[in-house]
Amino acid sequence: MKDTVDSYVTADGRTIGPVVMEMKNITLRFGGVEAIKDISFDIREGEIRAIIGPNGAGKSSMLNVISGFYVPQEGEVWYKGARRPAMKPFQVAQQGIARTFQNIALFEGMSVLDNVMTGRLTHMKTGLFAQSLWKGAAEREEVENREVAEKIIDFLEIQAIRKTPVARLPYGLKKRVELARALAAEPSILLLDEPMAGMNVEEKEDMSRFILDVNDEFGTTIALIEHDMGVVMDLSDRVVVMDYGKKIGDGTPDDVRNNQDVIDAYLGVAHD
Ligand SMILES: Nc1ncnc2c1ncn2[C@@H]1O[C@H](COP(=O)(O)OP(=O)(O)OP(=O)(O)O)[C@@H](O)[C@H]1O
């Protein structure tokens, strides 16, 4: 039912809209290695969609296809009802798709606020030339960008460290700053690359809460990849499971939890 209806309301009262992104028969090779083998799935507006799988399953490769870092040899990416041509990552970002990275990619010497401001770059219309001609527009833009950045900093409860250089922050907070920077782009789809990796239990709980709050408050569609099946089950509306580059499960957390192929993959049952 959920695959065909335009929109539906979840048990916790959130509205999940129609399909916003569709991966159709994606195959990605690195030389002789097929990292993704003929995988199709979709992402609906407003949902939290997880892609999970054991080590080497192809999750990062898939996230990199969505964000434009890799162009698949076969298959199509459809976004907002149109086939997306091969694009550079910055063009994908301009289309409203923001991401975080597994190995935090922040400017360590810059303050939290300045890092979050870099997330506004895709929104900056006034180039250097225009700025020199028309200072007023550039100033207005700066004020607007700062307001968005400050709102997100408040929302993610990192006001107290807004002036602190990122290098001085513990790992869990750096991950939160990275989330803030991605959100500053006001994305339609937010891609999270193993947002809970390397975190302790408390930090994982915090991150889960912020992901849920972002989705609820801003209505942001979220697609995340995660190694650990447990942490995403409570968080996600639907889950794609990959193993050895193939899709072995796709559905609600309960669907995939009861899927024998998924159970085998996580228990390390031998493959043909
Ligand atoms: N740039 C690359 N060049 C060559 N092979 C690659 C490259 N990136 C990934 N692979 C291979 O593609 C397969 C899928 O890797 P990928 O990193 O997408 O899996 P993953 O599910 O994200 O793994 P992990 O959970 O360990 O991060 C692996 O066999 C990997 O060795």
UniProtKB/TrEMBL annotation:
Keyword Transport recorded: yes
Presence of keyword Nucleotide-binding: yes
Annotated SUPFAM superfamilies: P-loop containing nucleoside triphosphate hydrolases
Keywords: ATP-binding, Nucleotide-binding, Transport
Domain of life: Bacteria
CDD domains in alphabetical order: ABC_Mj1267_LivG_branched
InterPro entries found in the cross-reference section: AAA+_ATPase (IPR003593), ABC_AA/LPS_Transport (IPR051120), ABC_transporter-like_ATP-bd (IPR003439), BCA_ABC_TP_C (IPR032823), P-loop_NTPase (IPR027417)
Domain spans labelled ABC transporter: 21-269
Molecular functions (GO terms): ATP binding; ATP hydrolysis activity
Regions that span the bilayer: none
CC annotations in GO: plasma membrane
UniProt protein name: Branched-chain amino acid transport system ATP-binding protein
Organism encoding this protein: Sulfitobacter noctilucicola
